[in-house]
Amino acid sequence: MSWVLLRGLMREQRHWGSFVAALQQAYPDQRILTLDFAGNGVLSAQSSATSVTQMVEQLRTQLSTQCGQQPSGKIRLMAISLGAMVAVAWAERYPHEIQDLTLINTSLAPHSPFYQRLRPRNYAVLVYTMLCGSVQQREQLILRLTSQRFNGTAAKEEAAEIVAHWVSLAQAHPVRRRNVLRQLYAAMHYRAPDQAPAVALRILAGAQDALVNPQCSITLAQRWNAELRLHPEAGHDLPLDDADWVIRQTLDVIAKPRSPSA
C-alpha cells in the first residue's frame, strides 16, 4: 500500500516538511510518496497544466515513473487545497486506483460560491504581493494566511524559520508567474461532480482557516454524505498547524465506499 501526498497552488512536495516522516512513522509498512505538479518543485521548469484533469494524467505518469511501474495495490490519496481538487478528479476518473481519499481544506465549484472559496478580504493583498512583492514578502503572506499556530508573537522565531526555509525552496525551484496563472486557471475552471467519487472519503478542515472559508468543507461533507473532521484551532495548512491531529484522523477506520447511486 502506498500513500500519495499532493500539495496546493505554488507549493511543492518539500512543503510537507516533517509531516512525511511523521506519517511514515505511523504507517511503517506503507510507502509514502510525494509528487509535484508540473511547474512546481523539481518540475518548476515545466509548464503547468491548465486543467485539473490534465494534472491528474501528469501525476499518474509521474507516479508510474517514480515507482518504476504502476504501484502495487490501490493508493491512499491525501491532498490539500488545489491538490484536493486533483485528488477528487483522480478518484472520479479512476476509482479502481484509489483506496481512500483524505481531503484537507479544499473548496470545490459548484458546491461553494467564489467568496467562500477564497475569502474576499484577501483579494487585494494576494494580487499585489504575487505581482509586486518579493519572495520574502510572498512567503510571509502565505504563512500568515495558511497558519494559525505560527501567527502571533509567541511563535515569532519559529515563523521566521519557516519563512526562511520556504524562501530557500522558492529560490531553488522558482515558480514562474506564468505557471501561477495556469494553475489558478485550472482551479477556477474545475467543476467537481455532483456525487462523491465511489471511494472511501474523509474531509478534514481547520475552523480558523483565514484563506478558504471552512464552510466549503462543511457544505461538501453534507452534500456528499461524507465524514467531516473539523479542527477547532487550525488554519488552512492543517499538516503544518497540527500534524499529529491529521495523522490521528487517518488512523481511524475510514468509512466504507458507497456506490455511485448512493
From TrEMBL:
Domain of life: Bacteria
SUPFAM superfamilies reported in the protein's UniProt record: alpha/beta-Hydrolases (SSF53474)
Entry's transmembrane regions: none
A GO term for molecular function: hydrolase activity
Record keywords: Hydrolase
Serine aminopeptidase S33 domain boundaries: 30-241
Protein name: Alpha/beta hydrolase
Organism per entry: Undibacterium rugosum
